[in-house]
């Protein structure tokens, strides 16, 4: 919460003293994986800065809970829960945005998880699951939402000569940049989303649609918590344990010059920054946010 308040103060200062809620000025923002961790903090931060939100999470209860939190902040929110890898869920998410708010301005492809295994023991299901959630789902959401974003941009260009700014943000990982033992599937998928990011940036820049990616390092989420905590999720009827062995956390922290894992609020602040008008000339970039690790 403290980090979120600081970011709100900074955005107000950058906006020349205007209320922070004017930063996004009603921009319609889709955030996937919005029920917990980075996605939840991004939803709350965008709400504080004037966005109207369409939120997705696999879990109905947490999706509804974060929508309520957003409304408590005085912003509008629509929740569309469901597994984005299943037929019709991506389409339902886009349809909800268009029906409720008549358009889409910002997409944050945040949904994802890890399913680790050394290369020689990684199953076909593990491999395909990572490609599906980290590459195919973002591609399908960009493609589906793009029908509306590009059409609106073309109409604006025909009327005024210029389209208003729109943004696609894809969440990647430093594992996709540098690789990581035990995560061949995750590393491949997170590397792939960076290629998609640069391609969208090149194709859609003409419509004033910017596309960037953020490669997060060690952020405090269920994916970096102690694997003994019991956190898990169902994938194809199987329980996939989340987290890393507790004794390794300390080792990872030593890799970070700042000496700690990042907070979800700090990660959300980076998403806010790249989606905001202050980054209007940043396009096709992959920003590593890792507290100085890997430099």
From TrEMBL:
This is Short-chain dehydrogenase/reductase. Pfam families: adh_short_C2 (PF13561). Belongs to the short-chain dehydrogenases/reductases (SDR) family. InterPro entries: NAD(P)-bd_dom_sf, Sc_DH/Rdtase_CS, SDR_fam. GO terms for molecular function: oxidoreductase activity, acting on the CH-OH group of donors, NAD or NADP as acceptor; quinone binding. It comes from Chloropicon roscoffensis. One of its GO terms (biological process) is fatty acid biosynthetic process. Keywords: Oxidoreductase. Coiled coil: none annotated. It comes from the Eukaryota.
């Amino acid at each position: 919460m403290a980090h979120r308040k600081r970011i709100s103060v900074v955005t107000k200062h950058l906006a020349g003293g205007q209320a922070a809620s004017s930063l996004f000025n009603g921009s319609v923002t889709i955030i996937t994986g919005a029920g917990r961790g980075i996605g939840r903090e991004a939803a709350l931060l965008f709400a504080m800065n004037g966005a109207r939100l369409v939120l997705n999470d696999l879990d109905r209860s947490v999706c509804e809970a974060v929508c309520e939190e957003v409304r408590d902040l005085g912003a509008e929110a629509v929740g569309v829960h469901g597994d984005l890898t299943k037929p019709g869920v991506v389409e339902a998410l886009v349809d909800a945005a268009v029906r409720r708010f008549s358009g889409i301005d910002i997409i944050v492809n945040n949904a994802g998880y890890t399913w680790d295994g050394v290369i020689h023991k990684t199953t076909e299901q593990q491999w395909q699951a990572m490609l599906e959630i980290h590459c195919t789902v973002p591609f399908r959401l960009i493609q589906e939402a793009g029908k509306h974003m590009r059409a609106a941009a073309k109409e604006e260009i025909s009327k005024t000569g210029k389209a208003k700014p729109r943004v696609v943000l894809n969440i990647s990982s430093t594992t996709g940049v540098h690789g990581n033992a035990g995560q061949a599937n995750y590393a491949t998928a997170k590397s792939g989303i960076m290629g998609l990011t640069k391609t969208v940036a090149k194709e859609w820049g003409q419509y004033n649609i910017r596309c960037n990616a953020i490669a997060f390092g060690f952020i405090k989420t269920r994916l970096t918590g102690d694997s003994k905590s019991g956190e898990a999720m169902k994938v194809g009827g199987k329980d996939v344990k989340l987290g890393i062995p507790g004794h390794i956390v300390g080792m990872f922290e030593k890799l970070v010059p700042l000496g700690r894992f990042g907070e979800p609020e700090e990660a959300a602040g980076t998403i806010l920054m790249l989606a905001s008008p202050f980054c209007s000339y940043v396009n096709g970039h992959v920003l590593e946010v890792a507290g100085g690790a890997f430099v």
